[in-house]
Specification:
- The chain is of the alpha/beta class.
- Helix content is 53%, strand content 10%.
- The chain contains 15 helices and 5 strands.
- A 5-stranded mixed beta sheet has the order 3-2-1-4-5.
- A hairpin with a 6-residue loop joins strand 1 and strand 2.
Length: 390
C-alpha cells in the first residue's frame, strides 16, 4: 500500500487550517489515500478540529519529493533515522512515521518526514523491517545511515537486528554496534511509570477527584475557590495514564487546590474519592522529586536543534538524583527510587558510551563534564569507566 508522505517542514498540526476552512482542493494528479488520511485524522487530538479535506490538500500530499531527495544526495555526511508507531483508538490500525535528520552545510538541523505509512497487523519485527528498508532504498540512504532511534521494546529490538543483517557492516559505524539507539524520552517514561506504581493508590484518588471536579458545575467550583481564597489561575487537567508527564502536571496543579477538594466533600455527597492528608503529603513529596525528570523530558522533546550533546549531562543528573533518593527517610520514596534505579541502570549500560563520545565532541565540555559526572556516579571506579569512553 502506498504511503502518505509529507515534507519535513510541515508538521501534522501545520496541516490544519486553524480557521477550519477547507483548503484549496488538490490537483487532479494528486492521489488521495483514504485509509492513511483516516488514520491521521484519528491520531490528531480532538481539539484540533481537523477536516479530512485539509489532509487531501497539496500542503499535505503534493510536497516536492525531488527537492528533498536532492538535498539528501548532496549531503555527504551521515543521516539519523527516527521512527514511531501509532495505533488508532477507533479503527485499531497501525501507522508508522519515518523521519530523517542531518546537519546541513550551514550547521542547521534538517528533519524530513520520509514516509507515513499504514502497516497492517500483525506488527511483527519483519513487517516493520520491510517498511523501513523500502524507505531507505526508495530515498537512497541505505549506505549513509548512522543510527536509528526507536522506542525501547522487544519488537523494535528484533527489527533492528533484522535490519543489521541486511546492511553491509562496512557501511555502518563500528560495524553497526552503535546503530541501535533507544529513545531517551520513552525510557524516562518507562522508568517513571515503574516508580509511580508505588503510589498508585494515592494517584488514583487524586485522578478520580480531578475527574469529579471537571464534571462539577463551574459556578459551584468558583464559589468554593472564592470562599477559600484560592487563586484560580490554572485549569485542572486530567492526565493520560500512559504518559507520566501529564500525571506530574495533574498532581502539581491538584496540590494547589487541595483545600478545595476537602471543602467540596462537604458540599457534594456524591464525592467519595477524597484523598487523605497522607495522600497529599505523598503527592507533594513525589512532585518535588519528579521535577528534574519533567524538565529533562521537556528538553529531550525539543525539535528545533540537536539534543544529543545535552543528553549525557541530564542522564547523569538523574542517576545522581536517584542515588540520593535511596537514602531518603520516606520509605515510599525509597521503594520508588529502587524500582526506578533498577530500570535506569539497564538503560545506562546501553547508552553511556556513545553519549560520552558525543559530549567529548562538544567543544564546551570535552572531557571535563564526563570526569565530573563519572566521579559522582561511580566513585572509585570512575577512572576505569572514563577510559571506556576514550
Amino acid at each position: 500500500m502506498s504511503a502518505v508522505e509529507v515534507d519535513s517542514s510541515t508538521t501534522l498540526i501545520d496541516c490544519i487550517d486553524e480557521s477550519n476552512d477547507v483548503l484549496p482542493p488538490p490537483s487532479p494528479t494528486v492521489e488521495t489515500h483514504e485509509e492513511e488520511i483516516d488514520g491521521v485524522v484519528a491520531l490528531l487530538p480532538g481539539e484540533a478540529r481537523i477536516l479530512k479535506a485539509n489532509l487531501r490538500s497539496p500542503v499535505w500530499l503534493n510536497f516536492d519529493k525531488v527537492k528533498t531527495m536532492k538535498a539528501l544526495e548532496k549531503y555527504h555526511g551521515r543521516v539519523v533515522v527516527t521512527t514511531d508507531m501509532w495505533t488508532t483508538s477507533n479503527q485499531k490500525r497501525g501507522y508508522m512515521v519515518i523521519t530523517a535528520h542531518f546537519i546541513d552545510d550551514s550547521w542547521n538541523l534538517q528533519s524530513h518526514i520520509l514516509r507515513f505509512v499504514y502497516v497492517p497487523c500483525p506488527h511483527t519485527a519483519q513487517a516493520l523491517c520491510d517498511a523501513m528498508m523500502d524507505t531507505f532504498l526508495d530515498w537512497n540512504i541505505d549506505r549513509k545511515l548512522s543510527t536509528i532511534t526507536v522506542h525501547n521494546c522487544s519488537t523494535n529490538h528484533a527489527m533492528v537486528s533484522i535490519l543489521l543483517e541486511k546492511f553491509d557492516p562496512n557501511c555502518l559505524w563500528w560495524s553497526g554496534s552503535l546503530f541501535h539507539v533507544r529513545c531517551a524520552a520513552h525510557i524516562l517514561n518507562l522508568i517513571l511509570k515503574d516508580g509511580l506504581e508505588v503510589i498508585k493508590e494515592a494517584i488514583e484518588k487524586i485522578r478520580d477527584s480531578v475527574a469529579f471536579w471537571t464534571a462539577t458545575p463551574e459556578r459551584e467550583i468558583e464559589e468554593t475557590i472564592c470562599q477559600l481564597r484560592i487563586p484560580f489561575t490554572k485549569t485542572l487537567p486530567l492526565d493520560c495514564a500512559t504518559w507520566w508527564n501529564s500525571t506530574y502536571l495533574m498532581l502539581q496543579t491538584a496540590i494547589e487546590y487541595k483545600d478545595a477538594f476537602s471543602h467540596l466533600k462537604h458540599r457534594d455527597t456524591q464525592y467519595k474519592t477524597v484523598p487523605t492528608e497522607n495522600d497529599w503529603k505523598l503527592a507533594v513529596e513525589i512532585c518535588g522529586r519528579l521535577k528534574v525528570f519533567y524538565n529533562v523530558t521537556e528538553l529531550f522533546s525539543r525539535t528545533r536543534y540537536p539534543t544529543a550533546n545535552l543528553l549525557f549531562a541530564k542522564i547523569c543528573e538523574i542517576k545522581i538524583a536517584l542515588s540520593e533518593w535511596v537514602f531518603c527517610d520516606n520509605v515510599v520514596v525509597q521503594n520508588m527510587s529502587w524500582k526506578m534505579e533498577k530500570k535506569y541502570d539497564k538503560y545506562w549500560q546501553n547508552i553511556h558510551g556513545i553519549l560520552g563520545v558525543v559530549l567529548v565532541l562538544d567543544p564546551r565540555y570535552k572531557m571535563t563534564l564526563i570526569e565530573y559526572s563519572f566521579r559522582g556516579i561511580f566513585g572509585i571506579e570512575a577512572e576505569s569507566k572514563i577510559e571506556t569512553v576514550l
